Amino acid sequence: MEIPYTVQNRPDTGIYNAKLGIWLFLASEVMLFGGLFSAYVLLRVGAEPGMWPHGWLNVTLGTINTLLLALSAITTLLAWAACKVRDFTKFKIFHACTILLALTFLGIKSYEYHDKLIHYEIALTDGRFADGHLVEESKDFDLTKKTGTVTLHGRIVEDRRELMDLRSPEAQAAKLDEVTIAATDIKKMGNYGPRHNTFTAIYFTLTGLHALHILGGTIVIFYFWAFGGVMWKTDPERFTNRIEVSGLFWHFVDLVWIFLFPVLYLT
Amino acid sequence: MSESEKPVSLQSYVRLCAVVFLVVLCTTSAMIATSFSHLGQGWTLKVTLILAIAVVNAFLVAGYLMHLLSERKLIYTVLAFTVFFFIGLMGLTMWAMNGFPTGTVVH
């Protein structure tokens, strides 16, 4: 059975069906991310003064990822343009670049997540706080039995608020060293995962959902790149429309990052 | 006729993409510079400036890469509804910010 309006425009809408479909889908996506941005605003404004983290994320890595996504958006557009001028070789080259850029983005994001998951904050029994990246745990380390030691590369502070603004002159001047702490001195220990505080919770939720979109988009683009040759030979116009639709999704993912980067990394 | 239905020249798209990427590079640098600058007016001005630059960036991507500057009327209608509901969502968020139920401990 022939699916109507995959190539020709519908007389009533003026566009082919998949294009209207993707725009309706993107409209719903705006509301999905909008809800999470709204949650971010409420969490941030409701935070106790001085308790909202500042400078916790690596701006250099965020910037690299911004440029990688911008480049991938460009290669996606060029892949579609190559289809329009019936140059399948160039389409393959441009979309291979898109896939590589997307995978690099995901690699950097994974590194950032890993960095947060090995970063620990330890509340000590004397009221101070140890903060830093995990170097090692002794073999007999057990927090419930209070045995062994844990070593962090970081610092010990008197007040937890000192850990909130890492761009402050005090935090910039702080000297990081290896700190070994006995389990008997530990009141509470946790990494910078989603349950650490409201900032890490919304950070992991927003960027995690965005990364899932990147992954989904990459799989679709890879499918067209690897198996698109068959449709290209039989129905190039329909294939070009598919590339346009997947490209619109990819540009939307770039658009979301354009706001995620400044909101999470820069403000 | 929308942009995607017009005859395409790969060279003209390469030129367009080069310009878009250069502008994205400049706007990203401007956002970072604003973030690390010491503005006298404080946090609100800084956030407003950074988000304004992000909007310019988003306009480029949506307008030129997604061809939204020359789309069909139906797409604009769909997006008009989206913008309306998005503004409503953010408006309600702003409105709710200062309204707490009686007895809530406000920091």
Layout of secondary structure:
The complex is a heterodimer of chains A (267) and B (107).
Chain A: H1 17-46, H2 59-84, H3 88-117, E1 119-124, E2 129-137, E3 149-157, H4 169-173, E4 177-182, E5 186-191, H5 198-227, H6 229-234, H7 236-266
Antiparallel strand pairs in A: 1-2, 1-5, 2-3, 3-4
Chain B: H1 10-36, H2 43-65, H3 73-97
Helix pairs in contact in B: 1-2
Overall description:
The complex is a heterodimer of chains A (about 270) and B (about 110). Chain A is built from 7 helices and 5 strands. Chain A has helices at about 15-45, 60-85, 90-115, 170-175, 200-225, 230-235, 235-265, and strands at about 120-125, 130-135, 150-155, 175-180, 185-190. Chain A has about 270 residues and is of the alpha+beta class. A 5-stranded antiparallel β-sheet of chain A has the order 4-3-2-1-5. Chain A is about 60% helix and about 15% strand. Chain B has about 110 residues and is mainly α. Chain B has one domain (about 5-95). Chain B contains 3 helices and no strands. In chain B, α1 (about 10-35) runs antiparallel to α2 (about 45-65). In chain B, about 20% of the residues are buried.
Strand percentage of chain B: under 5%
> Quick one: CATH class of the largest domain in chain A?
Mainly Alpha
Low-confidence stretches of chain A: none
* Share of helical residues of chain A: 55-70%
Give the structure's gist in a few sentences.
With 267 residues, chain A is of the alpha+beta class. Helix content of chain A is 59%, strand content 13%.
